[in-house]
Amino acid sequence: MHLAGALGARTESETSCWYALYTKHQHEKSAANFLARSGFEVLLPLYRTKHQWKDRSKIVQLPVFPCYLFLRTSLERKLEVLRTPGIFWFVGHGDRACSVPQYEIEAVRRVVQNSTRFEPHPYLKSGDRVRVRSGPLVGIEGFLIRFKNQYRIVLSVELLQKSVAVEVEISAVKRVESSSVPTASLLPGRHHNAADDL
User: Fold this and answer.
1) What fold characterizes domain 17-97?
2) In which residue ranges of the chain is CATH 2.30.30 found?
3) Domain 102-186+191-197 has CATH 2.30.30
4) Contacts of 189 (CB under 8 A, 6+ apart)
5) Can you name the residues that pair with 86 across neighbouring β-strands?
6) 142 pairs with which residues across the strands?
7) What Å distances lie between residue 149 and 104, 111, 116, 145, 168, CA to CA?
């Protein structure tokens, strides 16, 4: 089963939106599978990495955003979602669940469905904002960084204050004016300072 895409779909009312769910540690896949079997549309971005043990190494698939997954639903089904094994709560402000903008979901979905190499990245709020102008990721916007001899675009999910970096050709991007997007709190009792990641 390909967890990096939509796992399942069910007709929802026009009030359905994408939400981020906070999960138990290492329960992202099982919770996503359970929700998909219940008819929800789920997005669990995964990336491939080498895991090293003392005696061997293995390529594994891990969540891009550990302890989080995305779900499209109406809040009328909030209680049903929260009864899912492995799910703690909806991410938001206090007791109010906050939706994730559609353009952020689509950007993440396009990255994980593409063969381009990507990986988690510290959350960024400042830097040169660029837009991909050619290739399979055309139209996606993010912050440009340089890592060794490679360029990457950092895409951020504001609500989670989490980011993912995808490799790009420098000739395929152009600079755009940065725009400010309100930042939501991450989780009750957990505070994240983006400056610590820079």
Assistant:
1) Alpha-Beta Plaits (3.30.70)
2) 102-186+191-197
3) yes
4) none
5) none
6) 130
7) 27, 21, 16, 11, 11
Share of the chain above pLDDT 90, in %: 43
CA angle, residues 53, 59, 62, in degrees to nearest 5:
95
Q: Where in the chain is the domain with CATH 3.30.70.940?
A: 17-97
Digit-coded pLDDT (tens) for 55-99:
888 888 899 999 999 999 999 999 999 999 999 999 998 889 999
The residue among 28, 43, 186 whose CA lies nearest residue 102 is: 43
Tell me the two tokens of residue 116.
């381009």
Tens digits of residue pLDDT in 154-183: 988 989 999 999 988 888 888 886 554 433
Q: Are strands 150-157 and 96-97 parallel, antiparallel or unpaired?
A: unpaired
> In sequence order, what E strands does 74-112 have?
87-90, 92-93, 96-97
The Cα angle at residue 147 between residues 142 and 151, in degrees rounded to 5: 45
